[in-house]
Structure formats: structure tokens, C-alpha cells
């Protein structure tokens, strides 16, 4: 077979296969061009999931007739004035988007500069460029793409349903809108939830307001400010509290110099920062922008420009991890405000079902009846008629007998008033009620204590008067002996004691008196689960979390009032105490106003 040059239109269609693989990619290229043109308002309309119509209207700089004619030629761009690919400070730069779209669809462009008396229009169909003509146009650019992939029908077979393609367009536009809160974005079309987000003022307040629109109205009050800088690399944004997590990574939004990315290095850094506080099957919610010199990052390493390559990836990863961890530690005992809302919703569900009887009972209304007055309170200590035969509740109410300290009610977690079902501590604050899971809370406290002790001067060990033999299967025994030096740094000293057995010589002082048989078996399971992947520190933390679980206050243990108060006070000063080692919340807070609303008092 002889070698021949391909037809220019065929070349464009091949290029379009890399750049425009689906409607969302076409919308992304057009919106990025609008942002680069300085637009402050971008409106997107789609039909048929973007296959039938894509319309992007912006109020950017617009183009002259000469620029418009060149813009639809391959590799023609205004964004590389000096041809330096290592100093790219725009979202687009390849000059491939418009010609690629025009080769596989019908492309219509109308544009006008602000200082021009009239606009210019151009139509491209199947790669054939029309003549630039004068048209009536508002300042900015209006681009319509109809019948996408009509000239490459094989590509249509690989597209998903109209709904799936429309959702992909919506998700892509939301990511761009988050990265550029100073621009108004709107989206209309079928199979999507339309939105119109106004431009926000530049700064933290504007960004947080845009994040509230994109990530949910609960995000702003459950977000932490992230700000860190090192050696010319700066990260900024907002990250959700550890207990504000979701089932997928769709809530993780990252950008580099304003360019939304789904970069493996950055996603790994986020997972590493949250690994200690979020369940392994859950994902945090956040937005981070990494700002740096354009020469420090290569954005030309992926056809869709969704991944980047940093000159010093270790520096960037370390900065992201340390910045997130510092903010999470500074948050202390904070837990999400949505925990109380979920608790109240559960109460309402029970009430609406008649206390679980299965029959739906209409919820009562509470009219403002004139002349109504509250019944007179019973004398102190007098039993109420009809309740004398009820069984005593599974609760320890002794805490209310001790008068709380003067400032206890003003503390974040309040004063302990009761222990319910020997598992949950009920505390009172000035503004409501706090319910604490005593085991989950103490587990986190022990874990943080062990980590701090290890970082300071190593975990204190206590030799056993009578070393304890633990029988295991040979594989687990060998795994423990192989990790002997790591375990010794954590205060657990083991020796081989024949096939399938280990001898415990020393144990961490914090765990003295615990069930060592169960501890050693669980540590073996933790090592098997974690394997050899990941850093040594993460592996050690995994084992420490297992150890902490064994020395925590167990559910079912009755606590004295002073013990409950001591637990609350320690939670208030301990980092990450708002969630246990498994990522579950350690407490929920119910505001008095919400409780009153639940009972119809408001």
C-alpha cells in the first residue's frame, strides 16, 4: 500500500475524535473560549443531550471579521502570542476546538467587538468553511452547534442516552462555574435541572456562596477555609468537615490556575489527607485551587486537558495533604450541622407513623386558640396519674443531681445530664441538647492520644509480668513477626512462639488491662487488610486505630457524672473528635428551637 496524505477534512475529523468525544467536551471547549475572552456572563442551552443543539452565548471580547475567519482553521489561536507552550495562562491554547466541531457538525458563529458597529457571522458545515458576512449581533459571541456527529455517524453509536449526556454537560459546567465564581453561568435544556448562578464578588465570601449553590446549601456552614503556601505553590478553597461526606467523589472539585482537573496526584493527596477521618467507602466534599507559575505545571499532557503534570509533584502533594490536615485538626471537635437535622427527621418519621405502629396518623395542627393556657405544673415529686406502672427507663439520670459548673452550659458540648441505655451521654447547652456516643468519642480520644505520644517520643510500653501466648494461623503469625519492628514502635512487643503462635512481651501502657488476645488478632487482621501498600505512617495509624478501639469506653458501661463531663471536656480540646476512627460522627447537636418546632411550640 502506498503512503498518501489524508484529506484535510478527514484530518479534522480524526482530531475531533480526540478533542470532541461527546457533547460535554464540545460545551467545555466553547465555554473555556468564552472565559478566555473575558466573559462575565455565559449562557448554555442544549437539546437532545447536546446532540441536536448546543448554544453558548457570552459577553466577552468578541472577534473581528479577520479573526473569525482564522478561528475556524486548525491550529489558529490568539492564546500563544510568543509560542511558549510552557507559559500557558489560558484555558484553551491548541486552536483545535472550533475546526474539530465544524468538521463533525453544523457550526454557526455570530460575534461582535464592543467597539464595532456591526457583527460578523460564519457557518461551517462538514468542515467546509463559508464566507464571513455582516450580521446583527450583541457584543460578545454566540455559537450554535447543531446535529453533532452527523458527519461521523459511527461516533453516535458510542454516545449514551440523552439524559446521561445532558447530565455530563451539567456536571462539566458546574465544575467550571465553581472555579470561576466571578462569572454568571446559566444552563437550560432537557433532562437536566436548569440553573442560573449570578456572578459573585471576588473573594472568600463570593466563592463560598457559589460553593453553596453547587455543593448544597448545607456546605457553607460545614466548610473549613483552606489556605497554604510553600515555595511558590499556593492552595486555597474550602473543605467540608469529615462527617460531611458523600458516597462518590463527585463532590471533590479541584482546579489548577482556574482550570478544573481530575488529576490522579491531587485526588490521591485529598484521599490521603482524609484517610484518618473519613470511612474508606466515603468521599469528602471540597474545592481547592492550586495556584502556581504556569511554568511549574504542564497542562498539555492530556487530550481533554483534565490532567496536569507538575514540575515538583511531591511538593504539591505534600502541601495539599498538610494544608487539609492542618485545617481538619484546627476544627477540633466540630461535627456537621446535618447530623441534628437527620436526627430530627428520624423523630418526625416515627411521630408520623404513630410511634412505629405501622398506621399513618395525621400530624396534628397547633392553632393559636384564644384563651388557651398551659396546665398548672404538678407539685415537685408528685407522680402523674396513669404513669406509675411504666418500667424504669434504661438511663442513668444521676448527672442532673449534681449542679453543673458555672460555665459548663456555655461550653460547646455543654454539661452532662444523663446517660441513656448506658451508651449515649445526653448533655445540655444554652441553645439545645448534645447526644454523644461514648464509645465512638472515647475511641477517637485514645487514638489521638496514642498518635501524639508516638510523635513525641514513642509510645510508652509496659512489660507483662506473665507474657501471654496468642494462638493464630501460621500466615497471620508470620505477618505479625515480619512487622515486629513497626509494632514495637507502637508499644507492642511480640516474639515467635512456635508455628502459629506469638508471645506478647510488652504492650502499650495506654492499653494496660485490655484483652490482649483479641487485640493481637485484630492487629493481624489490620495488617492483612492494609497489606504493604501506602506509606508506613498510614499503616501505623491503621494499627493504632485498631489498638485504640480496644481501650475505649464500651457501650454498656455505666459512667459516673464526673466521667461524662471529663469526656466532654477532652473532646472539646482534641483534634478530629467530631468523628470516630471509622469516620462516624461522635455526637449530634439538637437546637432548642428545632426541638420546640418538633413539638409544635414554634
The major sheet is characterized as:
9 strands, mixed
Specify Rg, calculated over alpha carbons.
31 Å
Let me know the number of strands.
24
Low-confidence stretches: 356-393, 532-536
Beta-strand percentage range: 15-25%
- SS class: alpha+beta
- Total helices: the number is 17
**Shape assignment:** elongated
Mean pLDDT: 84
For the terminal residues, how far apart are their CA atoms? 84 Å
Helix content: 25-40%
Please, could you describe this protein's structure?
- The protein is α+β, with helices and mostly antiparallel strands and 602 residues long.
- It is 34% helix and 21% strand.
- It contains 17 helices and 24 strands.
- Strands 1, 2, 3, 4, 5, 6, 7, 8 and 9 form a nine-stranded mixed β-sheet that branches.
- Strand 8 (184-189) and strand 9 (195-197) form a beta hairpin.
- Helix 1 (8-19) packs across helix 4, helix 11 (438-457) packs across helix 15 (536-550) and helix 14 runs antiparallel to helix 15.
- It is elongated and about 95 Å long.
- The chain starts with 7 loop residues before the first helix and ends with a helix.
Characterize this entry briefly.
With 602 residues, this protein is α+β, with helices and mostly antiparallel strands. The chain is 34% helix and 21% strand. Helix 2 (23-36) packs parallel to helix 6 and helix 12 packs across helix 14.
Amino acid at each position: 500500500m502506498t503512503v498518501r496524505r489524508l484529506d484535510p477534512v478527514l484530518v479534522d475529523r480524526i482530531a475531533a475524535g480526540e478533542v470532541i468525544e461527546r457533547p460535554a467536551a464540545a460545551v467545555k471547549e466553547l465555554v473555556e473560549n468564552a472565559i478566555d475572552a473575558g466573559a462575565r456572563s455565559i449562557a448554555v442551552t442544549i437539546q437532545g443531550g447536546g446532540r441536536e443543539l448546543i448554544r453558548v452565548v457570552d459577553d466577552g471580547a468578541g472577534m473581528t471579521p479577520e479573526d473569525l475567519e482564522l478561528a475556524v482553521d486548525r491550529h489558529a489561536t490568539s492564546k500563544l502570542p510568543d509560542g511558549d507552550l510552557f507559559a500557558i495562562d489560558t484555558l484553551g491554547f491548541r486552536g483545535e476546538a472550533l475546526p474539530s466541531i465544524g468538521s463533525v457538525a453544523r457550526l454557526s458563529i455570530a460575534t461582535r467587538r464592543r467597539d464595532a458597529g456591526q457583527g460578523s457571522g460564519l457557518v461551517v458545515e462538514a468542515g467546509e468553511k463559508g464566507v464571513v458576512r455582516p450580521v446583527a449581533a450583541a457584543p460578545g459571541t454566540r455559537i450554535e452547534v447543531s446535529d453533532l456527529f452527523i458527519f461521523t455517524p459511527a461516533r453516535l453509536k458510542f454516545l449514551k442516552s440523552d439524559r446521561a449526556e445532558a447530565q455530563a454537560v451539567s456536571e462539566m459546567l458546574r465544575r467550571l462555574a465553581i472555579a470561576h465564581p466571578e462569572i454568571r453561568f446559566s444552563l437550560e435544556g432537557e433532562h437536566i435541572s436548569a440553573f442560573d448562578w449570578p456572578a459573585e464578588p471576588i473573594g472568600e465570601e463570593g466563592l463560598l456562596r457559589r460553593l453553596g449553590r453547587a455543593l448544597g446549601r448545607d456546605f457553607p456552614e460545614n466548610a473549613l477555609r483552606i489556605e497554604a503556601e510553600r515555595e511558590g505553590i499556593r492552595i486555597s478553597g474550602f473543605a467540608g468537615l469529615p462527617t460531611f461526606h458523600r458516597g462518590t467523589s463527585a463532590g471533590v472539585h479541584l482546579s489548577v490556575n482556574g482550570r478544573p482537573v481530575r488529576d490522579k496526584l491531587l485526588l490521591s493527596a485529598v484521599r490521603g489527607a482524609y484517610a484518618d477521618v473519613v470511612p474508606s467507602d466515603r468521599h469528602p466534599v471540597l474545592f481547592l485551587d492550586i495556584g502556581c507559575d504556569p511554568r511549574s505545571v504542564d497542562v498539555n499532557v492530556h487530550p481533554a486537558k483534565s490532567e496536569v503534570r507538575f514540575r515538583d509533584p511531591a511538593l504539591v502533594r505534600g502541601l495539599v495533604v498538610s494544608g487539609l490536615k492542618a485545617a481538619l485538626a484546627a476544627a477540633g471537635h466540630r461535627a456537621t450541622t446535618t447530623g441534628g437535622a437527620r436526627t430530627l427527621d428520624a423523630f418526625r418519621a416515627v411521630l408520623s407513623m404513630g410511634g412505629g405502629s405501622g398506621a399513618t396518623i395525621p400530624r396534628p395542627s397547633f392553632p393559636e386558640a384564644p384563651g388557651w393556657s398551659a396546665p398548672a405544673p404538678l407539685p415537685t415529686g408528685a407522680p402523674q396519674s396513669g404513669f406509675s406502672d411504666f418500667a424504669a427507663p434504661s438511663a442513668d439520670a444521676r448527672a442532673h443531681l449534681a449542679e453543673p459548673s458555672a460555665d459548663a452550659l456555655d461550653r460547646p458540648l455543654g454539661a452532662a445530664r444523663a446517660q441513656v441505655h448506658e451508651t449515649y451521654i445526653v448533655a445540655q447547652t444554652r441553645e439545645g441538647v448534645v447526644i454523644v456516643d461514648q464509645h465512638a468519642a472515647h475511641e477517637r480520644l485514645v487514638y489521638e492520644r496514642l498518635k501524639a505520644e508516638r510523635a513525641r517520643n514513642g509510645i510508652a510500653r509496659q512489660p507483662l509480668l506473665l507474657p501471654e501466648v496468642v494462638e493464630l494461623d501460621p500466615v497471620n503469625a508470620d505477618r505479625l513477626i515480619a512487622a515486629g519492628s513497626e509494632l514495637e514502635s507502637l508499644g507492642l512487643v511480640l516474639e515467635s512462639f512456635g508455628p502459629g503462635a506469638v508471645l506478647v512481651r510488652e504492650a502499650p501502657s495506654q492499653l494496660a488491662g485490655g484483652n490482649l488476645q483479641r487485640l493481637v488478632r485484630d492487629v493481624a487482621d489490620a495488617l492483612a487488610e492494609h497489606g504493604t501498600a501506602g506509606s508506613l505512617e498510614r499503616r501505623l495509624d491503621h494499627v493504632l486505630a485498631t489498638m485504640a478501639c480496644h481501650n475505649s469506653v464500651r457501650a454498656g458501661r455505666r459512667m459516673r457524672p464526673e466521667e461524662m463531663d471529663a469526656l466532654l471536656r477532652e473532646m472539646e480540646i482534641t483534634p478530629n473528635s467530631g468523628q470516630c476512627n471509622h469516620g462516624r460522627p461522635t455526637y449530634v447537636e439538637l437546637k432548642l428551637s428545632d426541638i420546640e418546632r418538633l413539638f409544635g411550640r414554634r
